[in-house]
Amino acid sequence: MESKFDYADMPDLKIDPATCDAKATSETKALKGYLTDVYGNKVISGQQEIYGGGNDGNMELEFDYIYNKTGKYPAKRLLL
Known about the structure:
Layout: H1 26-38, E1 46-49, H2 61-70, E2 76-79
Parallel strand pairs: 1-2
């Protein structure tokens, strides 16, 4: 099952893909470039995952639920 939406009102922004930190790592620079490229064109999803005692110790519960509903995993995972 693919989730779609038809329209999102995204303001036109001129975003410089360069980082403000001259000492930024190559990974940070690549991420900033990617986020700049997809702005207004794609949706990046993420999921906060309960870590430790939540979900009876099943750290994959939320990710599995999302995958089973959409056929895709979220792009980002935040462990707390």
